[in-house]
């Protein structure tokens, strides 16, 4: 039992087998330190944090209110049960360490992503009640790295926290509820396939980026695209925002095989630039207005 606001700092090694923790404090495993928790029937309290360079094994334990924050690649999870609403905080590439565990919250459980750079391939998937991934700091996907987001996952991004894609992000059947921007940089790729809800601020494809957007529903999210790459496709999506798209004048024809169904008149915003080839601006559902911004 640890009193409130009294922390445990581990620079050496601590091993608990079959012990219980009822704590109002933090347990900090420092670089070079090690914490092993095995067969602990109750781990209750504030949070355990594994810093970069620390290590440990967490096996067959039950986490009640205690959150695990881990920023190390040298931590093994297996056979644990997490019942908290926000049981885990980590970096984007470290999520796969969690798959051999049970998430059994009373409602939706959220894996919290503390921004940073995804520097290794990773998949975010549904794990029991852990269906939401909350990004609360700016996140980058490095060149050459692929982040895959599986069906049923909700990606929630805090306000003013951006996702910058230099590598590849693929979401199939996922939802986005976001107050942030998603920026696909030159050389980067974002594929959105059959996503039932894309909500938030805006997605921007820079010149030289690519991706496929197909079968998805855009609610408040605005799509901004400046790329003419042949590997950029917008097909069979539904846009219900009244300001759904911003682009350059010659790139408008990419939109024709989509549905625009705003509550009123939808406006395609043209961000100046040079019309470099013949093009045709048409009425597409409720998209009847073209605004030169």
Question: What is shown here, in short?
Answer:
By secondary structure, the protein is mostly beta strands.
Characterization of the model:
The model has no long low-confidence stretch (mean pLDDT about 95). This protein has strands at about 10, 15, 20, 25-30, 35-40, 40-45, 45-50, 55-60, 60-65, 65-70, 75-80, 80, 90, 100-105, 110-115, 115-120, 120-125, 130-135, 140, 145-150, 155, 165, 170, 175-180, 180-185, 190-195, 195-200, 200-205, 210-215, 215-220, 220-225, 230-235, 240, 245, 260, 265-270, 285-290. About 35% of the residues are buried. The strands form seven sheets. The protein has a ten-stranded parallel beta sheet, with no helix packed on it. A nine-stranded parallel beta sheet has the order 16-19-22-25-28-31-34-36-37, with no helix packed on it. A six-stranded parallel beta sheet has the order 17-20-23-26-29-32, with no helix packed on it. The protein is about 0% helix and about 45% strand. By secondary structure, it is mostly beta strands. The protein has no helices and 37 strands.
């Amino acid at each position: 039992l640890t009193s409130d606001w009294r922390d445990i700092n581990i620079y050496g090694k601590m091993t608990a087998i079959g012990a219980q923790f009822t704590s109002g404090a933090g347990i900090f495993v420092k670089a070079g330190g090690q914490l092993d928790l095995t067969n602990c029937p109750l781990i209750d309290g504030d949070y355990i944090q594994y810093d970069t360079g620390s290590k440990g094994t967490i096996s067959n334990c039950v986490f009640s209110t205690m959150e695990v924050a881990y920023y190390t690649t040298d931590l093994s999870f297996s056979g644990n049960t997490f019942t908290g609403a926000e049981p885990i905080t980590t970096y984007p590439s470290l999520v796969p360490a969690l798959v051999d565990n049970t998430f059994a919250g009373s409602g939706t459980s959220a894996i919290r992503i503390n921004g940073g750079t995804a520097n290794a391939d990773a998949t975010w998937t549904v794990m029991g009640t852990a269906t939401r991934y909350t990004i609360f700091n700016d996140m980058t996907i490095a060149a050459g790295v692929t982040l895959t987001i599986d069906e049923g996952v909700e990606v929630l991004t805090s306000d003013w926290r951006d996702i910058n894609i230099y590598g590849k992000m693929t979401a199939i059947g996922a939802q986005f509820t976001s107050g942030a921007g998603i920026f696909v940089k030159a050389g980067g790729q974002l594929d959105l396939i059959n996503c039932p809800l894309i909500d938030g601020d805006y997605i921007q494809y820079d010149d030289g980026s690519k991706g496929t957007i197909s079968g998805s529903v855009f609610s408040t999210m605005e799509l901004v695209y400046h790329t003419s790459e042949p590997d950029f496709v917008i097909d069979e999506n539904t846009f219900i925002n009244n300001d759904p798209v911003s682009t350059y004048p010659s790139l408008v024809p990419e939109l024709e095989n989509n549905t625009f169904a705003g509550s009123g008149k939808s406006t395609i915003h043209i961000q100046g630039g040079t019309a470099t080839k013949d093009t045709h601006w048409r009425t597409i559902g409720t998209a009847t207005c073209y605004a030169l911004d």
